[in-house]
Design a protein that fits this description.
The protein contains two helices and three strands; from the N terminus they run βββαα. By secondary structure, it is α+β, with helices and mostly antiparallel strands. The chain has one domain. It has a three-stranded antiparallel beta sheet with strand order 1-2-3. The chain is rod-shaped, with a radius of gyration of 38 Å. The protein starts with 6 loop residues before the first strand and ends with a helix.
């Protein structure tokens, strides 16, 4: 065997390429492919989870911004102020009725 030559050896369903002391088994390559496929599947599932979380976070952010916009535009009625106004108007009605 020369030091620079490559030899193909067939062991049934296992093929090997030898070059001096280097041996690559096709089963090792297939195992590596399967591991990579499983890793890709794992990260695709994780990505899906992250995308779902991002979706809901964005919706919450939009809702929070909507609430801020409403408050800034004074579309929210101050409940305390409204209660005072009702009490004042009721007090006026009560004093008008008694006099």
């Amino acid at each position: 065997m020369d030091s620079g030559s490559i030899h193909f050896i067939d062991y049934g369903n296992i093929m090997a390429i030898t070059n001096e002391r280097k041996i690559i088994l096709i089963t090792d390559i297939i195992d590596q492919k399967v591991r990579k496929e499983k890793e890709i599947e794992f990260y695709e599932k994780e990505l899906k989870k992250i995308e779902e979380k991002l979706f809901f976070l964005r919706k919450e952010q939009q809702l929070t911004q909507f609430i801020i916009d409403i408050i800034e535009q004074e579309k929210v009625v101050d409940i305390r102020e409204q209660m005072y106004e009702r009490l004042e108007s009721q007090t006026r009605v009560d004093t008008d009725d008694s006099g």
